[in-house]
Amino acid sequence: MEYILVTIILFVSILMYFKIADRYNIIDKPNHRSAHTQITLRGGGIIFPIAFIIFCLFNLNETIQDYWSFGLGLLAICTISFVDDVRTLSNKIRLSVHLISVVLLLYFTGAFTLMPFWVWPILFVIIIGTLNAYNFMDGINGMTGVYSLVTLGSLAYINKDVIQFTNENFILYPILACLVFLFFNFRKKAKCFAGDVGSMGIGFWVIGLITLLIMRTGEYKYILLLSIYGMEVVLTITERILLKENIFEAHRRHLYQLFANEKKVSHLIVSSVYAVCQLLVNIFLIHSELPLWAVILIIFIPAGGIYLGLKWSLKKEYNL
């Protein structure tokens, strides 16, 4: 009953946001980098911080004590991202808030206590890099929602059947938010896009859960729950560096962009393929007892080879 009520509240909340976005012209206009051609409401990902607020209300006794730092970090990064969706902010302001949010996230997960101080800067770089990867990959209908759903579902399975590392609802609420968001986004003509508030919000939540799991278990393999995103972003950045391009400028060199824009493959198919690939990785990852180096090789050698082969083929076909 609780989850049905939460789902209804999330539906009502996003429908109310649509009215606000429509009134104040919070829209996404197609540009040279876009994989869409129609003006669409932006910021539908506001449902993710709303999901956390609902989580707090339904779990009031423990949220203040256990989740205050995570909540402040999430709301800070979502607020600055939403403002950036509406009006462009300077990189210094955004990065400053990101750093504060990551500090709060690491405090929440106990990293400052469990990890030596010299590891802290590495964690900062990894988390901020992963947050931006989430943002880079949010370019076609369904991608952010379906991919996050797979990762959150894997985390829910781990929490229930492998090792309990957090409150079950702390995973189920963002799953419900993903499902509601996908109802409006997983379409040929999406009703809304996540916006930075969505990609950063759900990215922060997923990264928080994975970091919490790693800190509880000491198993660094769980960072590979985001390995498909990670491989795509690292290889694309490497490609752009080799081509002497400015990696901070917008582009259309991601493999998913080539399939959606040049090959004209359905956004929903491309998003689903990425999610299924990550699901297969997660199944292997969760049940494998191999050492970490072997797991990395088994995942990245075939995945990287397929990725590079597909990209080379598309670039040759379209003279890119």
Automatic annotation (TrEMBL):
Pfam families xrefs: Glycos_transf_4 (PF00953)
Q: Matching CDD domains, A to Z? A: GT_WbpL_WbcO_like
Q: How does it sit in the membrane?
A: Multi-pass membrane protein
**Protein name from the UniProt record:** Glycosyltransferase family 4 protein
What the entry lists under InterPro entries is as follows: Glycosyl_transferase_4
Q: What PANTHER family is this protein classified in? A: PHOSPHO-N-ACETYLMURAMOYL-PENTAPEPTIDE-TRANSFERASE, UNDECAPRENYL-PHOSPHATE ALPHA-N-ACETYLGLUCOSAMINYL 1-PHOSPHATE TRANSFERASE
Segments crossing the lipid bilayer = 6-27, 39-61, 67-83, 95-112, 118-134, 141-158, 170-186, 193-216, 222-243, 264-286, 292-310
Per UniProt, the keywords (alphabetical) are: Cell membrane, Membrane, Transferase, Transmembrane, Transmembrane helix
Location comes to: Cell membrane
